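Supplementary Note 3. Input sequence used for the single-chain structure prediction.
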Amino acid sequence: MTSVSAGDVAGRPAAPPPSSKRKSVTGTRKTVAVLFLLPAVVLLGALVVYPIGYSLVRSFLSDSAGGGFAGFDNYTEVFSDDGIRTALKNNVFWIVFAPTVATALGLVFAVLTERVRWGTAFKLVIFMPMAISMLAAGIIFRLVFDQDPERGVANAVWVGVHDTFADASAFPKAHPGRQSPLESAGGGAFVTKDPVRAGVPVALPLVGVAPDQMPGSAKAAKAPAADPGKVTGTTWQDFTRGKGVGKLGEVDAAELGYPGMRIEAVKDGKVVDSTKAASDGSFTLSAKADGAQLRLPGSNFREPYNGVDWLGPTLVTPSIILSYVWMWAGFAMVLIAAGLAAVPRELLEAARVDGASEWQVFRKVTVPLLAPVLAVVLVTLMINVLKIFDLVFIIAPGSSQDDANVLALQLYRSAFNDGRPGVASAISVILLLLVIPLMLFNIRRLRREGRR
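The predicted structure, written as discrete structure tokens, is reproduced below.
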């Protein structure tokens, strides 16, 4: 009686005995794999594990030359120092607003670009800032938010809109000169010392405006001419370049009028008539001005609107967050668009067939289906803003850097500017502790998605 092997019964040869040297799925021996991984492990240990360990140890040492054990003194100082507490508050502000706004914009862009033919081109434009380094973006937005409207794009637009609805003064530096018939009336206005009379020309000389700053519409001043029954006069720049040139209080050939200067006739505190000077500075008021005092309102002389102080103590952090959103909204859009491409269209069409509006489809179907992707994007951006340094360091001017301070910037300042490596190490450990839960959340989420 012969024995039958398992291979004979199955009709195929028996499996060979297992080899003592097992190979991986790709056919690579474990020893070879370890040898290839060894350089990466060494670099990882030298560049990540060692610095983390050293920072942890250094955070418990004092900042003195000997570097003796300081216990938790450095951590206590982190939460008691006013500058560091400001950095903590700003980091909370960053975590709450920057990732939320960037993710929300990315979601809106991803959904809307699906409905337009040029969606790919739009996505390319929105994603392009990601190709710019933080350093370059910081320099760009430092110029964008410059206070001077001649250089700062934000203020140039803001001032342009403001001046569309509010007249800007062309003579902010003008004021009465010596022997002038005008005197201060408060609020930046000037008024004639004596009442004026119909038929008697009035001279209102001013100085203080540089010739190259005079409006382009200004023409050579014209001496006032008498007009019976009316109050006439001239307001002009009573200054001629050159020593001993021209006569004070008289219109000279080289002197320019103040075009658009507003003149009011005031009686008993009430304005009875008003007008604006012509391009040569001449003006005419009706007989109502007879016996009144002429007033040049303060609106003629107020400083021109100079825009918003974007990088001042109040708005510096929101302005920097705006520049961050400009860079990272494209990143959020690309990831969300990839998730949106995997959403079953049958569900969206079924909701529309059931009578749901586009807003209801977006809010109750699209967003819930994209929730895993939105969570990953949001947490990734949270990790990113916890380490934000470049934009704050470059955009915030020295006068506002304390108000825009964040933990990563404070770490740099404590280590290199203040000579406090112990405090800097404590800040780095705190940053690590804040980042670890977010990283674990992301890893768990990605693994869960991979198992589906």
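The two ends are 53 Å apart (CA to CA). The domain at 73-156+310-451 is CATH 1.10.3720.10 (MetI-like fold).
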